[in-house]
Specification:
The structure is a single chain. By secondary structure, this protein is of the alpha+beta class. The chain contains 3 helices and 6 strands. The strands form 2 sheets. Strands 1-2-3 form a 3-stranded antiparallel sheet, with helices on one face. It has a 3-stranded antiparallel sheet with strand order 4-5-6.
């Protein structure tokens, strides 16, 4: 399982992330802003209230959260089969 160890909010809805496996970098989340629950990010200072759950996911007040796997794939360009190779075998037998 992918886990976020460190998060630092930046400008323009970017986050610097460091993952448990040592991968680190910046991810642009501006495409989410203003959509559904992510409308809250438009409130001044709200995006900066990001924190890490015990499971290594990101969360904001009000129950907004983001899956660490999705963030990792967005940042690294990896695909689900890269992170979860055992899933490929399960689909082949379905």
């Amino acid at each position: 399982m992918v886990e976020v160890l460190e998060v630092k909010p930046g400008d323009d809805f970017r986050l610097f992330l460091k993952f448990k496996d040592g991968v680190s970098g910046s991810v642009d989340l501006s495409s989410y802003v203003g959509k559904g629950v992510f409308s809250a990010w438009l409130e001044p200072g709200f995006f900066q209230k990001v924190s890490i759950t015990e499971e290594g996911a990101l969360k904001w007040p009000g129950g907004i959260d983001l899956c660490p796997d999705a963030l990792y794939m967005r940042m690294t360009g990896k695909k689900p089969e890269d992170l979860f190779p055992s899933l490929i075998g399960n689909f082949a037998h379905a």
